[in-house]
Specification:
Radius of gyration: 22 Å
Strand content: 25-35%
Number of helices: 6
Distance between the termini: 79 Å
Order of helices and strands: HHHEEEEHEEEEHEEEEHE
Shape: globular
Largest sheet: 13 strands, mixed
Number of strands: 13
Helix content: 10-25%
Length: 320
């Protein structure tokens, strides 16, 4: 009996380890940005500030040595006008989502619980009953989030990029002719096609103070309810098409993530038309984060001879 029980325990443990390893590798393969943003900060002069991101971890080295870093200033004298709409299409749909406090920003993540995650939960329970239930001390809770590509895509140059999450920075990270804005939203997309060279695409929207943003208004109550003890919350079905990207003109360039690991080869699409957000909405986002930083925007990075294109300009008298 003891041998049978020991064998069962070993089998459960081995199965759990293999399953967890698979899940971890799957999550890692879909991970785009650092999840725990408390590993770095935005304070000038801090040892964890933007100037030192590339020194904190070896895998973040490109934050310091990279030549395609973001954000940038989109100055008129560096922008190439393309008098056509370009190959960029949005095709989103409603999907279950959660709001998560990542430490330096609030993100909306798109998720779906799959059979694998349920199976992992079953093995976690078995593992706990077999081992942890017989030991003294606390239990370390591990949250697994299995993300599926359910919220739709953007299509760039014929390739599909699936929406993963969106988050906000205040003030804006990108500037236009050295002018910054009150806030910037990033919609992060990922291509699952192994043939696509640049598999990350980020759609950015800039905001100035004005009428409240309707999308934020819908989420604000849930955002305000986040605490250090409850850093994430399910908000049900959210349709990304509610994020209005007005106007037909947009900047495009090749850059990087604006947070560690600062991965390069990111296709940036920045809407030229400036949206509006209220002061109260910006304050609510900052208050909800509960950190000490007054801003969560990375400084402007060198352009290094990169090309910036502005698509959608029509007519001979069009201006930047």
């Amino acid at each position: 009996m003891k041998q049978q029980k020991a064998y069962m325990s070993f089998t459960v443990t081995l199965t759990f380890v293999l399953l967890f390893s698979y899940l971890a590798s799957s999550v890692e393969s879909h991970e785009v940005e650092v999840e725990d943003e408390r590993e770095f900060d935005y304070v000038q002069g801090s040892q964890k500030g933007p100037a030192h991101w590339g020194e904190i971890k070896k895998e973040w080295g490109i934050c310091k040595t990279g030549k395609l870093q973001s954000p940038i200033d989109m100055a008129n004298n560096r922008v190439k006008l393309i008098k056509e709409p370009g190959d960029f299409k949005r095709n989103y749909k409603a999907c279950n989502s959660i709001i998560k406090n990542r430490g330096h920003d609030i993100s909306v993540g798109i998720f779906a619980i799959t059979f694998i995650l349920i199976l992992a939960g079953v093995f976690l329970c078995i593992f706990y009953n077999e081992f942890m239930g017989k030991t003294k001390g606390g239990v370390i809770w591990m949250q697994l989030q299995w993300e599926e590509d359910k919220a739709g895509t953007v299509e760039i140059d014929g390739s599909q990029y699936f929406l993963q999450q969106c988050h906000w920075h205040s003030p804006s990270e990108h500037t236009i002719n050295s002018k910054g804005y009150k806030m910037e939203m990033h919609m992060v997309h990922l291509s699952t096609d192994p043939k696509v060279k640049n598999n990350i695409a980020v759609v950015g929207l800039l905001y100035e103070i004005g009428p409240p943003d309707a999308f934020l208004t819908k989420l604000l109550t849930d955002i305000k309810s986040l605490t250090d003890q409850m850093p994430e919350k399910s908000v049900g079905m959210i349709n990304p098409t509610e994020i209005k990207m007005d106007g037909k003109e947009y900047y495009r360039y090749l850059g990087s993530l604006t947070v560690p690991p600062c991965t390069e080869g990111v296709i940036w699409i920045i809407n030229k038309k400036i949206s509006t957000v209220s002061e109260d909405q910006v304050k609510a986002l900052r208050d909800a984060v509960h950190d000490y930083a007054e801003k969560n925007a990375r400084p402007i990075q060198p352009l290094n001879e990169r090309e910036i294109k502005l698509y959608g300009i029509v007519g001979p008298s069009a201006e930047l």
